[in-house]
Specification:
globular, D-Maltodextrin-Binding Protein, domain 2, three-stranded antiparallel sheet, mainly alpha, 8 strands, about 45% helix, single chain, about 10% strand
C-alpha cells in the first residue's frame, strides 16, 4: 500500500498525497472501524465489519461514485467472491484489494506426505511436527472452518451459532492436535507460525492458517512455504468451507476528500495495479487477473495455483450490522478454549448465548 501511494502521488504530480498508518493483525480484526472512519479518509478493513459501517453511515457506497462497468468487472471471477464479501443490501462498500482464506501450510522439503484427513493431522501432530496458530483470534477462525468442513456452517439459525455435533467435533479436533503440539501454538498467530516454518526445521506443517504469499515467493528469505488444500473429514474428499479472509479498501463518509479517496481506491483495485505494482511490492492481490496469471504464479512459487481451489470453495462469514461485535465477543470467549474444550457443551452453550444476545443488541454508533 505504501508503494501504491508513492506511485499514485507521482501520477498526480504531487497534487495528492496518501500516508498509511499501520495497525496490528489483532487490531485489524477487532478495532472499531467506525472510529477509524472519523480519523482517516481510507480504511483497510475486514469484511464482517461492512454491515456495521454501512448502517452507521461511516463509509460511502461505491455505487454512488464508481460506474457499474468498473464494479461489474471487479466482481467477475473475483477469487472466492472476495469482491462480493464487501456487498451489503445490494450495494458495494469497499474494494477487495487482498484475497485470502485459511489454507494448509507446509515445508515441501521436510514433508513428503501431506495429511489428507484430520485423522492424518492428529497422527502427524504426535510426532511434534505440527504447529497450528490457535491464539484466541485464530482458534475462533479455525472453529468456523472446521464446523463447515464437518458439514454445518456457523450462523445458520437464530438459536445456535454452531451445530452441536459439528461444534463438538471441531473443539475435539483442535484439542487433540494442540495437546500433542508445542504449547506455543496457543499463543501463535499465522505470521508467527509461518515465520517458524520458514526459519526453523523443527516444524513442517500447519493444517489451518491464513495464507501469505510473501512466504512462498522466490525472493523470500528463509525456506519456501507452500500453501494448499485443507484436510478433509474422509479420504478422497475435497474439504469445503475454509474461512474467507482478505482485506477491503473503504472510503470514510467523514472525509473531506471523498472524490480523491475514491480515485485512489479505484486505482489500487484496478487490474493493472493489482497484477503489477501491488504484487511486485509484496502484496497479495484480489483481482482475478493476478490469480490466473501463469507468470505471477511462477513468481509466487505456485501460491495462486495452490490456494485458488481452496479459495473458490471457501466460506464467507456474515457481514450484517451486529456480526462484527459478536465476533469480538466470540474471540474473547475463545481465550480459554483449550481448557474449556474438555467440557465442550458448556463452552458451546456460552457461544450460543453470545450469539443470541448479539442478534437483539442495539447498534452502537460512535
Amino acid at each position: 500500500m505504501t508503494a501504491t501511494a508513492a506511485h499514485y502521488e507521482r501520477l498526480r504530480d504531487g497534487e495528492v498525497s496518501v500516508t498509511w498508518v499501520p495497525r496490528t493483525l489483532k487490531e485489524f480484526g477487532m478495532v472499531s472501524v467506525e472510529e477509524l472512519a472519523r480519523q482517516f479518509d481510507l480504511i483497510v478493513m475486514d469484511h464482517p465489519h461492512i454491515g456495521t459501517m454501512a448502517e452507521s453511515g461511516s463509509v460511502v457506497s461505491l455505487n454512488d461514485y464508481v460506474d457499474d462497468v468498473t464494479l461489474d468487472s471487479l466482481a467477475e471471477r473475483s477469487p472466492g467472491r472476495s469482491h462480493q464479501s464487501y456487498e451489503y443490501e445490494g450495494r458495494q462498500w469497499a474494494f477487495a484489494i487482498d484475497a485470502a482464506c485459511q489454507t494448509s501450510a507446509r515445508r515441501p522439503d521436510l514433508l513428503a506426505a501431506v495429511p489428507e484427513t484430520w485423522h492424518d493431522v492428529e497422527a502427524l501432530a504426535r510426532t511434534g511436527r505440527v504447529l497450528w496458530p490457535l491464539c484466541a483470534v485464530d482458534a475462533a477462525a479455525s472453529f468456523m472452518t472446521l464446523t463447515k468442513v464437518h458439514g454445518q456452517a456457523c450462523a445458520q439459525s437464530n438459536e445456535r451459532f454452531a451445530d452441536r455435533d459439528a461444534g463438538r467435533w471441531a473443539l475435539a479436533t483442535m484439542y487433540e492436535v494442540a495437546r500433542h503440539s508445542d504449547p506455543r501454538c496457543l499463543d501463535d498467530n499465522p505470521i508467527t507460525v509461518l515465520e517458524a516454518l520458514a526459519h526453523s526445521d523443527e516444524y513442517s506443517y500447519a493444517p489451518l492458517a491464513f495464507c501469505y504469499v510473501n512466504y512462498s515467493r522466490h525472493d523470500h528469505t528463509g525456506a519456501a512455504v507452500a500453501f494448499g488444500d485443507i484436510p478433509s473429514l474422509h479420504p478422497g474428499e475435497v474439504a469445503h468451507g475454509a474461512l474467507l479472509g482478505g482485506a477491503g479498501l473503504a472510503v470514510s463518509s467523514f472525509s473531506e476528500s471523498v472524490d480523491e479517496a475514491i480515485a485512489y481506491a479505484t486505482y489500487v483495485a484496478s487490474r493493472d495495479v493489482q497484477s503489477g505494482l501491488y504484487f511486485t511490492s509484496g502484496g497479495q492481490p484480489a483481482h482475478h487477473a493476478a490469480w490466473s496469471s501463469p507468470e505471477l504464479d511462477r513468481a509466487s512459487g505456485g501460491f495462486f495455483s495452490g490456494v485458488g481451489p481452496v479459495l473458490e470453495c471457501s466460506w464467507t462469514r456474515p457481514n450484517g450490522p451486529r456480526f462484527a461485535e459478536f465476533q469480538n465477543s466470540m474471540i474473547e470467549h475463545f481465550d480459554d478454549w483449550f481448557v474449556a474444550a474438555e467440557s465442550s457443551d458448556k463452552f458451546l452453550d456460552g457461544l450460543d448465548n453470545l450469539y443470541r444476545s448479539s442478534l437483539t443488541s442495539t447498534l452502537d454508533v460512535p
